[in-house]
Protein: 3-hydroxybutyryl-CoA dehydrogenase
Organism: Streptomyces tubbatahanensis
Amino acid sequence: MDRPPLHTIAVVGLGTMGTGIADILTRSGREVIGIDTNEAAARQAVAALESTTARAVERERMTQSERRDVLARFRTFTGIEAAAEADLVIEVVPEDYDTKCQVFAALDTLVRPETILATGTNALSVTRLAADSDRPERVLGLHFFNPAPAMKLVEVVSSVLTSPRAVAAVTALAEELGKDPIAVGDRPGFVADGLLFGYLNQAAAMYESRYASREDIDSAMRLGCGLPMGPLALLDLIGVDTARTVLEALHAQSHDRLHAPAPVLRQLADAGLTGRKAGRGFYTYAAPGSAEVVPDALTPDPAASGAAGRPVAAVGVVGSGTMAGGIAEVFAKAGFPTVLAARSEAKAKTAKERVGASLDRAVHKGRMTSGERDTALALITPAGSLDALAGADLVVEAVAEDLDVKRALFRRLDQVCRRGAVLATTTSSLPVVACARATSRPAEVIGMHFFNPAPAMKLVEVVTTVLTGEEARATVRAVCAQVRKHPVDCGDRAGFIVNALLFPYLNNAVKMVQEHYASLDDIDAAMKLGGGYPMGPFELLDVVGLDVSLAIERVLHEEFRDPGLAPAPLLEHLVSAGCLGRKTGRGFREYARR
């Protein structure tokens, strides 16, 4: 077998990331030189490799003989001189420019002229590190994601000084390691962290403002967007101090207030509450380094739920579109007699037929029996008049996202519905209080924001205005539990939790393409592989609809008046051209017309 072009690789810095990189390199057949000035860190890296390879043998993914070979290929040292024989050096020392410069200066005097020097930074300038090197053409960025053995993404970062040959060599290495490398230019955060950390910062600021609890923010993003972790839990995993460093680097370049670190990050970091590694950050953990969250003073007490809700025996849903039908299906499957009211009886019957088709699919997939389908469908009564809602205890509207239309509807509901009935809007972008003030009973009006498709999505944002009564909130939360949805509490401001965090991230992704920093495919791949997102930002924008996305971004910009929230011109141009996503056959990508 030919010797790999990069056969001997030194890893400088044996923390969590360095140890993970050493693990995948030794398993690939490379000779790995692990270097850390802290002897304990070096011993811990060896112990970690021994542990992971022992588990691999237990699971029959490796033989004992292969394990011995892997362990023999990993040697550790406390002096940088050990890197002299390496073909590639990867430094993953702390994110401090002076520290990294010292490492690169020492390597310049030790390694061969052809040795490639890679920095694992995700926040500092690769160009600056290269410019200070004796051979800037061999310096590049090689950004793995944590945990390195599991995460597929590797960002290969070139400066204007980097040799194409060096880029080709490390790209080939990444592919041989089973990774998915993407080539990016040198700017703080690169692609994945450049998008991720702005979102994390927004979440920290949302928590700091007491708009929503840490548990509700994290639940909203996991259940509403399908993310593997909530943003505050992820900040604890990354390290609050690390996140602050990355954000400071991002802000220094972008001057975007969205990247200005939320003060709570500094407060936590200065107090030593840096997340899991310290045993406490946004959450409290069983011990430093533990992933087990334990209750603390901020943990919600289920017994302190406040007012009791009103009994709900009958439900009304207003609308004839996909969301209205989905909500009616949710209530009917939970056993609630449900009136589905539309502008005409024909529209209401068509909406019920769509619910029937959805239930048929559920039977076909084995998610319910035909008897359960028949029972649920029988609970839905189509109506062509709002008068049919007179006996409902809870009415949820899902009509057009137009404030005048919703106000007119709530004025009519105020006349039709009995006193004590809770009136809810599913709006995702309009002020709930405007609907409330169209009635004579604003204390009974609330936001109940379901996510599409309503039967599948577990999240409901329960949006209270300054006029909403506690009894109405308690009623809606109790109903959410009955229909097996997870409620999160938030106030009446643009975007609520999910859209307020999601759409600035999507907008920043559009800006990256607009600035020719990275391609659609690379950005989508980076967020799926590096961030664990179920869809890349451009896939999601095309599914949601570019017109819908633009409308939400405009509402956010208008409410918060932050220049960083201004919709990207590229998004506006595509909407003006009628390129709205999958529904028109073309958005950021083209789709086959049905």
About this structure: The chain is about 45% helix and 15% strand. The first strand starts at residue 8 and ends at 12. The chain has a mean pLDDT of 95. Residues 336 and 504 are 37 Å apart (CA to CA).
